[in-house]
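PROTEIN DESIGN WORKSHEET
SECTION A - STRUCTURE
LENGTH: 160
TOKENS:
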């Protein structure tokens, strides 16, 4: 794996990122905008699953309006994150926070998959004015915890 990381670091793409003034901080800034676009709408949807606005706002309306924004945010965070990872691949991959960040992103993805494949199928029964099922509230708590954890692990990547 070390050879792969060394090869990635020496690639023309990594050279270009290292050699372009201010590109790294620009990527960091866009990464944070992506995180805001991902986590903001995701938290709003999680709060709806936990009961906020239950009488007025349909879960399906919240999902249709908010989740596409989260998808765009994730795409922005992923593209900029990979661009920041490549020039320092072996150092960053060696940090203790790296497996936490990756693991928590995978856990967040698994939680989304289970929610949409199983729990969300029955949304017509609890779309508005009703308590959401325990499985939906559980998914919301897991989402809040995993995205917070990814954010902490992401910040720690710069240190340890
Ligand atoms: C999906 C693929 C992602 C990759 C490959 C990635 C990779 C990275 C890298 C390489 C850094 C720079 C670390 C450094 O300064 O040395 C970083 C920073 C960071 N990442 Fe990510 N990231 C991804 C997604 C996310 C997501 C989804 C979140 C939050 C929900 C996140 C939160 C952060 C935070 C808070 C920072 C610190 C930003 C700063 O202080 O400038 N990352 N990430």
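SECTION B - SEQUENCE
RESIDUE ASSIGNMENT:
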């Amino acid at each position: 794996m070390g050879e792969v990381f060394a090869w990635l670091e020496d690639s023309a793409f990594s050279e270009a990122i290292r050699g372009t003034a201010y590109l790294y901080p620009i990527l960091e800034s866009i990464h944070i905008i992506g995180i805001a676009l991902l986590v903001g709408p995701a938290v709003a949807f999680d709060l709806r699953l936990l009961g906020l606005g239950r009488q007025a706002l349909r879960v399906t309306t919240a999902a249709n309006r908010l989740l596409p924004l989260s998808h765009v945010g994730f795409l922005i965070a992923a593209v900029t994150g990979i661009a920041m990872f490549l020039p320092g691949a072996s150092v960053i991959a060696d940090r203790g926070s790296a497996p936490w960040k990756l693991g928590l992103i995978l856990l967040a993805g698994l939680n989304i998959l289970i929610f949409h494949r199983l729990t969300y199928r029955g949304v017509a029964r609890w779309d508005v004015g009703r308590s959401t099922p325990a499985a939906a509230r559980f998914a919301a708590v897991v989402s809040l915890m995993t995205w917070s954890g990814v954010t902490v692990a992401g910040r720690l990547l710069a240190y340890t």
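SECTION C - NOTES
The first helix runs from residue 2 to 10.
The chain has one domain: 2-156.
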